[in-house]
Amino acid sequence: DIQMTQSPSSLSASVGDRVTITCRASQNISKYLNWYQQKPAKAPKLLIYAASSLQSGVPSRFSGSGSGTDFTLTISSLQPEDFATYYCQQTYTIPDTFGQGAKLEIK
Amino acid sequence: QVQLVQSGAEVKKPGASVKVSCKASGYTFTAYYIHWVRQAPGQGLEWMGWINPKSGVTNSAQKFQGRVTMTRDTSMSTAYVELSSLRSDDTAVYYCARGWHEYGDHGRGWMDSWGRGTLVTVSS
């Protein structure tokens, strides 16, 4: 199975900050990397698909980049509603696998 | 709008089976895959598998093979996942999600709409 490693696992930031979360795959996954946001007791929400495509309805402050093994999710200016846990997921090879999550907390 | 409505919480004893349903509305049920993802308390997301509602073809993580059955009823636009031989570490919220695959049954896609989840508790 392809292992997905996110860093950092947790981070504190302030409203207005620029934040970057990294996801590394244990082997080449081309562009098949998705990002999800999950708030407590809620279902995950798709933010970015195929590494860099913004899901409809998601604010443009969210962006994704990368290919191969290294990917990033960037939030350009944190808003109060962005404090949540973020997961990357590879779908290049079955089984689809998720990173362990990155918890973004208010500083 | 797209909606996935899941069945209610379940409490099961070790060794039993559980079947969770996921009723889709707001789109053509057979045009998208249905994935199943679970999340143990305080833990991350774990992909279980998917079903192609049009053909009934399924694919699941090796970890669950032999214990998981994914089915669908196209007349009711509903997908089901059944997990057998339950253990305490199967206690989790089980989510269904609509999936789009660039390569059909070879996957490579994303999950764009999710159900609210079904809590399955396994306890003696």
Biggest sheet architecture of chain B:
7 strands, mixed
Q: Structural class, from secondary structure content of chain B?
A: mainly beta
Shape verdict of chain A: globular
Largest sheet of chain A: 7 strands, mixed
- Radius of gyration over C-alpha positions of chain A, nearest whole angstrom: 13 Å
* Tally of individual helices of chain B: 0
Provide a descriptive summary of the structure in words.
The complex is a heterodimer of chains A (107) and B (124). In chain A, strands 2, 4, 5, 6, 9, 10 and 11 form a seven-stranded mixed β-sheet that branches. Chain A has a four-stranded antiparallel β-sheet with strand order 1-3-8-7, with no helix packed on it. With 107 residues, chain A is an all-beta fold. In chain A, 35% of the residues are buried. In chain A, a hairpin with a 3-residue loop joins strand 5 (45-49) and strand 6 (53-54). Chain A has strands spanning 4-7, 10-13, 19-25, 33-38, 45-49, 53-54, 62-67, 70-75, 85-90, 97-98, 102-106. Helices cover 0% and strands 50% of the residues of chain A. Chain B has 124 residues and is mainly β. Chain B contains no helices and eleven strands. In chain B, strands 2, 4, 5, 6, 9, 10 and 11 form a seven-stranded mixed β-sheet that branches. At the A-B interface, strand 4, strand 5 and strand 10 of A face strand 5 and strand 10 of B.
